[in-house]
């Protein structure tokens, strides 16, 4: 896996390569989540799965920026979307951003984003039998959720292939992720 990809500076959100860079980030983070799962590091895996989902949301926001600009009502909201939301995808606004994306055609994002946010909580709080600080009672519940979110990242990125400038680097990262998913699924 080419982890150097994560170390490169992101292109500006106004550049065409931004979507591809964020998709590649999503694939690499998802692969790292699976590697952590394989080592028994479920909290770390949860964090990587969350980062993968966040990178995917950033790519979707940029990919459909024109349609999103029609949905937002004020110039202030448009400026916030371009200057803050797309480059950072603030955790506190992920549900609202997912709702905006759902409004422009991305069905099913809200439950997946809720799952990603639950994994984010799990990363910091660990298993919680009372479910006060985390939505997962056990490590195995969280591990299953990581796998589910990674599968969803793969599915959504595969759907985007016809809409983006798909290259060898993305194809190789997707293949490696799918290979790792098959390996983890069998163990």
Give a verbal description of the structure.
The chain is mainly α. The chain is globular. It has one domain. It is 73% helix and 0% strand. It contains nine helices and no strands.
Describe this protein with a few key phrases:
single chain, 187 residues, mainly alpha, 9 helices, 0% strand, PaREP1 family protein, PaREP1
Strand content: under 5%
Report the order of strands and helices: HHHHHHHHH
Task: Tell me the overall shape.
Answer: globular
Figure out the total of helices. Answer: 9
The helix content, as a percent range, equals over 70%
- Show unreliable segments: none
Between the first and last Cα atoms, what is the distance in angstroms? 21 Å
How many extended strands?
0
Our Rg estimate from Cα atoms comes to 16 Å
What structural class should be given to the helix and strand makeup? mainly alpha
Summarize the main sheet: none
**Number of separate structural domains:** 1
Mean pLDDT: 91
Protein name: PaREP1 family protein
InterPro entries: PaREP1 (IPR010268)
Describe how the helices and strands are arranged:
Elements: H1 4-7, H2 17-38, H3 42-63, H4 65-71, H5 75-88, H6 94-103, H7 109-125, H8 139-160, H9 168-186
